[in-house]
Amino acid sequence: xxxxxxxxxxxxxxxxxxxxxxxxxxxxxxxxxxxxxxxxxxxxxxxxxxxxxxxxxxxxxxxxxxxxxxxxxxxxxxxxxxxxxxxxxxxxxxxxxxxxxxxxxxxxxxxxxxxxxxxxxxxxxxxxxxxxxxxxxxxxxxxxxxxxxxxxxxxxxxxxxxxxxxxxxxxxxxxxxxxxxxxxxxxxxxxxxxxxxxxxxxxxxxxxxxxxxxxxxxxxxxxxxxxxxxxxxxxxxxx
Length: 239
Prior knowledge:
The protein contains 7 helices and 13 strands. By secondary structure, the protein is an alpha+beta fold. The protein folds into 2 domains: 2-49, no CATH class; 60-237, tt1808, chain A (Alpha-Beta Complex). It has a 6-stranded mixed beta sheet. Strands 4-7-6 form a 3-stranded mixed beta sheet, with no helix packed on it. A hairpin with a 4-residue loop joins β9 (158-163) and β10 (168-175). α3 (61-80) packs parallel to α6 (210-220). The longest helix is centred in the first third of the chain and has 20 residues, at 61-80. The radius of gyration is 22 Å and the shape is globular.
């Protein structure tokens, strides 16, 4: 009897379950990434890219939060006038076993309107939104390298990267498993191939002239292409 009572008590029987914190550069499965991220409610952003944890540095207003805010405003104008289309800001995307990015913004077509994503029981996006947008400091960022490959492989149909320091916007379109660059028109305006009527005046956005960005977008909402897209979405939801 004394031998039983005197045995060491395993630590697991006396201590609460310890969940290690996320650390930049950790190599984890998506399940373990989710477990650790959920245990850190104070953490605002962490991503799993090709099985590696990325935790961004503090955010500059001029190099990130201001252009980020501007992009959300532009996408909101479009989504408000396009039934079945909704946007997201810093939402985690459950893409595949090694990747759970948290892009700055995205647009998706709701599943009931024929979109390619689903939602899990906790409301997370499963699969790739039709359009993803990232605000990067420069073209050296992982947004134009590791993340570009991940989004292409998971069939994000359009990928937009605003490289703030470079004063440049890249717009990629998914074509048969590859990304091809989309060129702006003669006026410097990008026109989405996936979301007809979505138009971005890149020069105005880079210059901070969001009034012009807004005016350009609102004008594009009156196009025949946007009207036809709205009709198509409505029919998909009401066959």
